[in-house]
Design a protein that fits this description.
There is one protein chain. This protein has a domain of about 150 residues: Sandwich (Immunoglobulin-like), CATH 2.60.40. The strands form 5 sheets. The chain has a 5-stranded antiparallel beta sheet with strand order 5-6-12-8-9, with no helix packed on it. Strands 10-11-7-13-14 form a 5-stranded antiparallel beta sheet, with no helix packed on it. It has a 4-stranded antiparallel beta sheet with strand order 15-16-18-17, with no helix packed on it. The relative contact order is 0.15. The chain is an all-beta fold.
Amino acid sequence: SEARALVTPGLRRGRRYAFGVRVDRQPALTPARNQWRLAFGLEASAAIEGYRLWAFEDMALAMSRSSRSRGGAPAENHVELTFTPTNAVPSRGMLVVTAPQGYHIPFGCAAGVVRVGGDQAIPDVSIPAVACRGEQPPANRAQIRFRAELASILSGVRHRLTLAVHNPSFLAPYPGFWTLQSFSEASDVPESANLLDVGRVPSASVTESFDAFRVEIVGAPTAEDLRLPLELDLSLPRAPVPGDVLEVAGPAGYNFATPVVDASLEADLRQCLLFERVPSAAAADPAGGQAAAAAAAA
């Protein structure tokens, strides 16, 4: 961006002058090339280092569950917000999290904050005595406060906030944003005079969920068996159509695929050990969304 000003005659050589420029809108983050320049006539200044904006940097979002809540069973979701603050937040301060519309954060919410170490040599450090409080009735906002004098958010250090929420009960056409704010003083009603950093990150889309899903081991396999027979019983919210994909993700260590001749092919999609559709006794409508499948894991 560039601003130009018309200067009338009268400036004197060697004297210092001050002027102001109104900026109607600042960037959301400190620019990577944060420099200002001044040119006058045939003269120009060297690059002038700009100021660092009061904003969270390197924000990232991770969610443990993307399915929507259904009926009287809310879908609990563990959300991780990773951020690097520009300003330190003292123990008397607080963080305020605002989720997209439709998310519910319980009044007595569960949250944790850690300083991210980055590697094994520098482990993560948990911030003690973190207290989380949502609104009453539950809405999409919560305050994170610090009860210990040594608990604080450090400037320029990467942190990770973990928060338990309930997913929306509807599928929104627009996912929205998660917003994070920090304040130097905690209060029931956040005061703008105490605002420190602000940041936001795009939310993940909320998806449809199975009406029912169950996995059980078939028969009585022994420790000597090389394959573990599994049966998956599921009820879809709608009838599947050609082109739909059913993706099954098991715990770490399970292997559903046939062996490969070379380790470089491990990440490739390949034939399953066993997969077949079996009749479901609970299926009221053969063309509907209820089905059962048999699979095997090595």
